[in-house]
């Protein structure tokens, strides 16, 4: 072939005949076209799969965000309740201390009254438990 001849699809413009090398190139081109078609199909399939995975990812992300919001609300509610309970515990501890102090004070008063009764009985020589008055009745108090 000369330099100025144009070859299209393995066919020489000057001649319409195919030689063996042209036939081999045509077969190779057909195989290449089939391979390119396979690759194009594969690219389309991967594109579809990619789009489906992106959609699934977005759905999962939205679901996770919704769960996260729900969990945040639950945690906020739990934290609020915990704070309320801590306040209640502090109040109950304060009430307990007040009650314990009142109980100790009552026990001291009981001991003081018992001593007074014993002193009165010694002075009056009245047996224990027999002290009384017309307006009130004092009974013997046992302290455990």
pLDDT < 50 stretches: 13-20
Strand segment tally = 2
Strands across the major sheet, in which order?
Answer: 1-2
Shape, principal axes of CA atoms: rod-shaped
Helicity range: over 70%
Tally of separate domains: 1
Oligomer: single chain
Question: Major sheet: size, sense and barrel closure?
Answer: 2 strands, antiparallel
Using only C-alpha atoms, the radius of gyration works out to 53 Å
What is the succession of H and E elements?
Answer: EEH
> Can you count the helices?
1
> Distance between the terminal alpha carbons, to the nearest Å?
130 Å
Helix-strand category: mainly alpha
Average of the residue pLDDT scores: 78
Portion in strands: under 5%
Describe the structure.
This protein is mostly helical. The chain has one domain (21-124). Helices cover 73% and strands 3% of the residues. The protein is built from 1 helix and 2 strands; from the N terminus they run ββα. It has one helix at residues 20-124; strands at residues 7-8, 11-12. It has a two-stranded antiparallel sheet. Strand 1 (7-8) and strand 2 (11-12) form a beta hairpin. Mean pLDDT is 78; it is low at 13-20.
């Amino acid at each position: 072939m000369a330099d100025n001849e144009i070859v299209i699809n393995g066919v020489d413009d000057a001649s319409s005949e195919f030689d063996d090398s042209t036939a081999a190139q045509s077969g190779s081109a057909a195989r290449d076209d089939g391979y390119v078609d396979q690759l194009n199909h594969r690219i389309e399939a991967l594109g579809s799969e990619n789009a489906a995975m992106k959609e699934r990812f977005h759905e999962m992300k939205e679901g996770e965000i919704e769960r996260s919001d729900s969990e945040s609300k639950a945690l906020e509610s739990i934290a609020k309740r915990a704070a309320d309970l801590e306040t209640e515990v502090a109040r109950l501890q304060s009430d307990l201390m007040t009650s314990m102090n009142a109980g100790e004070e009552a026990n001291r008063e009981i001991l003081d009254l018992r001593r007074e009764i014993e002193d009165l009985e010694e002075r009056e020589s009245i047996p224990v438990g027999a002290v009384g008055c017309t307006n009130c009745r004092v009974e013997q108090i046992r302290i455990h």
